[in-house]
Amino acid sequence: QIQIVESGGGLVQPGGSLTLSCAHSGTIYNSVVTGWYRQAPGKEREFVASINRFGGTKYADSVKGRSTIISRDNAMITVDLNLNSLKAEDTAVYYCNVKDLWRSDYDYWGQGTQVTVSS
What we know:
Blueprint: E1 4-7, E2 10-12, E3 18-24, E4 32-39, E5 46-52, E6 57-59, E7 67-71, E8 78-83, E9 92-100, E10 103-109, E11 113-117
Parallel strand pairs: 2-11
Antiparallel strand pairs: 1-3, 3-8, 4-5, 4-9, 5-6, 7-8, 9-10, 9-11
């Protein structure tokens, strides 16, 4: 069992920026992917961005061009999601997910961090 801790959420004005951090305690194998998801009130959880062990990244169309997901180290112990040009529709609880594509039992979620974009 690994632990995941998210941080960096908060209240930000439209057009502002925020960095979310995801720190975990597990072993990162080459097949592990760390991703960020979000869930707005009344909506289903949706994919935001992900990064794999080799630095490959993916982004949802809704944040592409104004967000960056990066790992602070090669071991992917801490992964940051930088969000820029924030909009009201970015308001949601953001969750970090760490999963191994080759092991179905290696799929962990953080507790979530609230991001509110409002003036």
